[in-house]
Amino acid sequence: MIKIGIAGHRDLDKRYIEEYKKQVLKKLDDLRQKHHEVILISPLADGADRLVVYEAMKLGIKYIAALPMQKKLYKDDFDTTSKLEFEKLLKNAERVLTISHTKPFIRDRQYELVGRYISNNCNILFALWDGKQNGFIGGTGEIVKYHLKNKKKLWHLKVDRNAI
């Protein structure tokens, strides 16, 4: 069995989504053909997390939802449509686990903890990342840096983000 963790941006440039899907699907299919069983570990956030999960579902690959905080608090980060999609994805997860809260509760720290959990519990991390180190606690760049520091396998799909 191989476990694939997911880290990536929420604000993927919509112009390239179909290309990202093709590349993710191909990589997942390659891994599925090489390994008896494949499972994903994802926080199910908007953007990269869900893109990989949806492509995996096309191949019959199951996923574990790793939430950075209690579901009620986590859903505050999503708009109304995203909350509905999140609930649907949670229902289809093989398992749902929630990272324990820091004391005091620090939202960015929770994202860091879930990213580290995913890194520590996967064989390969899929990073849909623009390649920039911005130093945000719990951000994709920080999770990739943590993952590589631990000399673990990384599959990096360089992505563009929506302009702000």
Give the end-to-end Cα distance, rounded to a whole number of Å.
40 Å
β-strand percent reads 15-25%
Q: In this structure, how is the largest beta sheet organized?
A: 6 strands, parallel
Series of H and E elements: EHEHEHHEHEHE
Q: Total number of helical segments?
A: 6
Poorly predicted runs are none
DSSP summary, beta strand count: 6
Shape: globular
Mean pLDDT: 96
What Rg do the Cα atoms give? 15 Å
Give the proportion of residues in helices: 40-55%
Structural class: alpha/beta
Please give the order of strands in the largest beta sheet. 4-3-2-1-5-6
Supply database-style keywords.
164 residues; alpha/beta; single chain
Task: Explain what this protein looks like in three dimensions.
This protein is an alpha/beta fold and 164 residues long. It is built from six helices and six strands; from the N terminus they run E-H-E-H-E-H-H-E-H-E-H-E. It has helices spanning 17-34, 48-58, 71-74, 80-92, 107-120, 140-149; strands at residues 2-8, 38-42, 62-67, 95-98, 124-129, 153-158. A six-stranded parallel sheet has the order 4-3-2-1-5-6, with helices on both faces. Strand 2, helix 2 (48-58) and strand 3 form a beta-alpha-beta unit. Helix 1 packs across helix 2 (48-58) and helix 5 (107-120) packs parallel to helix 6 (140-149). The relative contact order is 0.21.
